[in-house]
Amino acid sequence: MRRPSVWGECLSEYVGTFILVFFGVGSVNAAVLAGVTAGLWQVAAVWGAGVALAIYATGAISGAHINPAITIALAAWRGFPKAKVAPYLAAQLAGAFCGSLLLYGLFHGLLVHFEAGHHLIRGGPGSELSAMVFGEYFPNPAMFGASQDAYQRVSLATAMLAEGIGSAFLACFVFALTEPRNPLASRPVAPLFIGLGLAIIISIIAPLTQAGLNPARDFGPRLASYLLGWGRVAIPGPRGGFFTVYVLSPILGAVLGSGLYQALRRQLGSAPAVEAEESAMEAEPAEASVMSQPESSFVLVPCEDSGHLGCAIARRAAELVAVATPEAALRAAGECPRGARAFVVAVDGSSSCQASAHLEQCGVRPSAVVSAPAVLARAGLVRPGVDLRARSEELAQALAAAISDSLQSVLTELRERRRYQQEMAPIMERFRGMWSKVELLPSPGGVPPEAERSRVELLARRSRNLFVKFDEIVPPADWAEPHDLFQDALLCVAYACEGWVAGDAPRWDQNLEKARLQLKPLLRRLE
């Protein structure tokens, strides 16, 4: 499956946040302006359902963060690329802003009637009673009004604490429900439970702050209301503090809540043992890594020189791409790179000069074929009356650019794999040292002597420490399953060692056999 571009992911975040705001903020409009909802829980339930639907609609493309606080938490704890944070946040804010404008168009008539019925002047004192259908205020104006007496019920510090705690719970639930190794989490229903968790949080926090929990959900609609006439009632608000309460607090809360979840899931053994065992493993003699040195990520094969101009252009373009791309290796078609564990690109120069045909004759199926005449014709560079020989270098550069553009998604994937291999190398080296000792252990025949027990207990702790190390590495998307299986296998090794120490032969045998099966998929890819 082709990985979405950053533009595609941002479009997905825009759509997801638009959906969230349309249903969530729309439920607030319906409740305040039309009085059609029966209490806070009904509004909260619509919010939860809207979030779940937004995740189902866009999760497969961008992960459906639809909340800047969640995006930042994922960047802090789960390796989400930091270069994508700003584009995601901009897309989320844009989606929330546009969703608010649509709601204003739909509810404009009801809004004007509401303002007239409550003698409100838009942007004047007390007009947060109508502005609350977009941005948020503390305490909830629908419940406590907008008087000085109401302001005394919830202080700025209390509002910040409420938003921070609510966001911490939300982020913790999101991390737990999307955790691949959580045996109680189910991907198909995770969006429903995230939505349910949000609804429960709203039912507690909304009386205090209207339960923003999402900087885009607050600032996008708040910016719309500012531009639609509420002015300073929207930004900075009658009490100020909108940034600290509805932007800063959710971000800090989400980072802390998700960090707490990450810390809890890593407590697989005694904390002091982790650092001690890491030092012990460093002291072991280095053994051969289970990963071989990675070869070139992809091979460029231009057509053989036949004197045809198209062939010369194809060869020159391949040379330019190889020089500009460290992952590329240039091979002649006659070398027939059979068995190369790489992405093979054949560059054809003309109908009489085809690297693709040459490769297929020697038993190599190219991963991609680039035809110089077709690419240059589509670009409008080859047409009657043009002196191609005089412009051969320009044509070669244009073809090289087309090759590079077409390979961007491949390059991104291959670079991710290279990064993963490099980060995994020291961890896998430690694994090999530990695993070789485990495999030499005989099947237990009763409780072993104290010295032997201590030695195998040490192996169990080392396996658990490696399990923790795996959490620090983010695998490429298509390597996530073997990565997770390998990590689970490390726990099986620890359980097997504990069975050996206890003299429990069935526990030793069953866990060791399960570990061997789960280790294989990742080892095959890395070797």
Verbal overview:
With 527 residues, the chain is mainly alpha-helical. The chain folds into three domains: 6-265, Glycerol uptake facilitator protein, CATH 1.20.1080; 298-406; 418-526. The chain is built from 20 helices and four strands. It has helices at 6-34, 40-62, 68-77, 85-117, 128-131, 141-144, 148-151, 156-177, 190-209, 215-230, 242-265, 271-283, 309-324, 355-361, 372-378, 392-406, 408-439, 450-470, 480-501, 505-526; strands spanning 298-302, 328-330, 343-348, 368-371. The longest helix is centred in the first third of the chain and has 33 residues, at 85-117. The relative contact order is 0.08.
In short:
The chain is mainly alpha-helical and 527 residues long.
What's the CATH class of the largest domain, please?
Mainly Alpha
CATH architecture of the largest domain: Up-down Bundle
Radius of gyration of CA atoms, rounded to a whole number:
30 Å
* Helix proportion range: 55-70%
C-alpha end-to-end distance: 24 Å
Shape: flat
Low-pLDDT segments: 268-296
